[in-house]
Amino acid sequence: MKLALLSDIHSNRQALDACMEHARAQGAQRFAWLGDLVGYGADPGYVVQQAMALVADGHCVIGGNHDALAVHPPQPGDKAASSVAAHGAGWTHEHLTPHERAFLAARPLVAEVGGVLLVHASADAPERWRYVDNEAVAEQCLDAATQRPGIRHVFCGHVHQQTLYYRGTGRGLMRFAPQPGVAIPVAPRRQWVATIGSVGQPRDGDPRAMYALLDTEAWLLRFERVPYDHAAAAAAIRATGAMPDYFAQRLEVGR
């Protein structure tokens, strides 16, 4: 099975369409979205509608912190109201239908597909939204995941960068920076954690969208980068008249 993994779409219609088209051209048979469907971008309804169609067809969509914020945006005076993640949450909430918000609210925080664990943040405490951005947190994430029967591998989003952590001959995890489009052997006997990057808000200085493709028969993993019309996505954000301009600037510079 070829499993396409997408995360942190952030209401970016242009990036989502480009990644889904690319994944299908690569022979993807199943799709898993790892949360943060909305937030930051201009097309939350479109993205949620695509997710609803995927779930209806038997694919997997889990939830992220921005999805939770869109369902219950912080109110003035709330501690979270001043966070970057909260900016635009109210606008996103208003531009989703009650049915779309209910769909987001119903998303699980963890799922298992094809023998791997999927989680937006860290598997040891998914609801705390911890970033798997170093070897220590990756090890805690992996240790929690592998307590589940049959699970040896974890895919995460949230970080907006593409990284593979694997358990070598020692006790700790080792960090590996993948090259886009280059298949990596990921033997099922070895334990590893991968952060698959962001479809709609890359933050490594490269504006191309990110996703990953796992072949569970050959056990090969490819981290992909996909060009898309990020200028159109940035223009759509500015056209809302409600989002901070730096949300658009992020798409233009990939940071």
UniProtKB/TrEMBL annotation:
Residues 1-217 form the Calcineurin-like phosphoesterase domain. One of its GO terms (molecular function) is phosphatase activity. It holds the Pfam family Metallophos_2. Gene3D superfamilies: 3.60.21.10. GO terms for cellular component: cytoplasm. Belongs to the metallophosphoesterase superfamily. YfcE family. PANTHER family: BLL5683 PROTEIN, METALLOPHOSPHOESTERASE. This is Metallophosphatase family protein.
